[in-house]
Amino acid sequence: MNPCKEILVNRKRGDEGASAVELALLMPVLLLILFGIIEFGLAFSRNIAITNAAHEGARVVSLGGADAEETVKRTSGFDDDEQDDIAVTVDSDCAGSAVDAQVSVHYEHEFTVLGGLAFFGIDHVDLEATAVEKCV
Prior knowledge:
The structure is a single chain. By secondary structure, the protein is α+β, with helices and mostly antiparallel strands. It contains 3 helices and 3 strands, in the order αααβββ. It has helices at 3-10, 18-62, 68-76, and strands at 87-90, 102-112, 124-134. It has a 3-stranded antiparallel β-sheet with strand order 1-2-3. It is rod-shaped, with a radius of gyration of 27 Å. 17% of the residues are buried.
């Protein structure tokens, strides 16, 4: 018997497109997981940036320096259009304060989701950071 003919005879019927169907079923789930990981990484990076900016703003105010809001916006590294959504609150001022005075800077930022979490109806994530420094 011809070996090529034997392979054709022994082949199962009905499994010609099974791998294509499996790929079509799993690909959206895998892409959703991939974009979710990317979104989480971007949000985590933004959270680190606003935490550092809040600490820098509190440090500048505790040393009797410039405006905390301007310092936070400058050190956050965000674009000008993204800085409009930034809310910075300073709880106390160190100028002429008591010995144990502290300054607290609270920073809020709304992170817009690109698409990984938008599938679940999440269009933004609120990020917050608070930094407290002792006045010098």
